Amino acid sequence: MLDTKKIGERISILRKERGLTGEKLAELLDVSPQAISKWETGKNLPETFLLPTISKVLGVSIDSLLIPETYPVKLHLGGHYIDGLPLLQWGQSQDCTWAGSVKLLLDAIGVDVTYSEIMGFSGACYYFSMTPNWCPSATMPQIEYNPNSTLERAVGVERDYFAPESRDCKVKEAISRGKPVMLIEPRVEMEWGVLCGYTGDGRLYGRSYFDRLKPDEKDIFTDNNYFLADKYPGADPNLTYFLRDRTTPLPIDEALKTSLETAQNLYSAKPRHNGHYVFGLVAYDLLISGLQGNDTDFAAITQYGTTGNGIILLARLIDSRRAAHTFWAEKSQYLSTVNARKMRNVAEFYADIVSAINTVLPNDLIVSTQKDGYPFEAWSGETRIQFADALTACKQLEQQAIDTINDVLNHW
Fold first, then answer.
1. Does the model's pTM come out above 0.70?
2. Fewer Cβ within 10 Å of end Cβ, the chain: N or C?
């Protein structure tokens, strides 16, 4: 059923965005100003035969006029903002900044997909990378592959990029139509967030996982507590996009096979950037060897603070494998009887990885660390050995998981 109030609000917003008065829009459509007023107040809907002309004048598709937005768009400080997008927060079992941000985009266009499905269909749930200096940027899946394209084909959506010369204008246009904009580095290097508001003086606001770590009241936009995207002007235009249209999703068996093929590729990925980034089981070796070093060697690994980076890396590993467990515990039913049993075993391997790391790094410590930020308490040599032992067991579980995945694909 069409929501006349929301359709009217949308017509009003689009009209004002294009600098049209009610009288001018009425003139362009050859209707009375009273008709425009009734549409915009939700008393009447436009006649069907007028929809193509209205969509052309307002520069939107007919569907985008008639399909109610999941979140309302409001006017504020000479711009627009999407009202009510939830916070992005650590410790909610959604700690991959790419997947958490994508979920906001999908929710905003009415695509009902869980976080674990985003991680599973995209293959991000299998991702694990390390650098010699334990840089947290290694946890970003875009380092090795494009998780967007895999996910979009699986769930049936299309992404739209912005040309650099028109980016600012198009970003604002997307927001005014109720579509949050995904971008890299809204506040912190290499991390993802979304833009969901802008003001008339050119400031852009949104959500990121790092808002709580950089509190400043002057940066807050509206009662939604959207934060200033202070790194937006320098963000990569090629990594700024919104989700445009729905398409036909892949059949579930094809989407699941693609997920497993992504796992296969990620586990066997070759080192990148002159060997700086390593993946899969080799990443475990790099992490374990660092933990097993003496105090001096361990302290020298990174200028950023190895203990803090170690918690971030392990927290992201826990998050991804927890998502892998949930995904396959739910999706194994769609496979053949034999393969379903094998993938339930894989789900348990991933659950055991989460349990092994949580034994030495409890969730409450992860949450408090990521919520409050630096400084971090240093790990003793004894603690590091406990981590190394736990991760050695995890590496064996990962090997069992990928061996089983290869077996499932061989008998697909």
1. yes
2. N
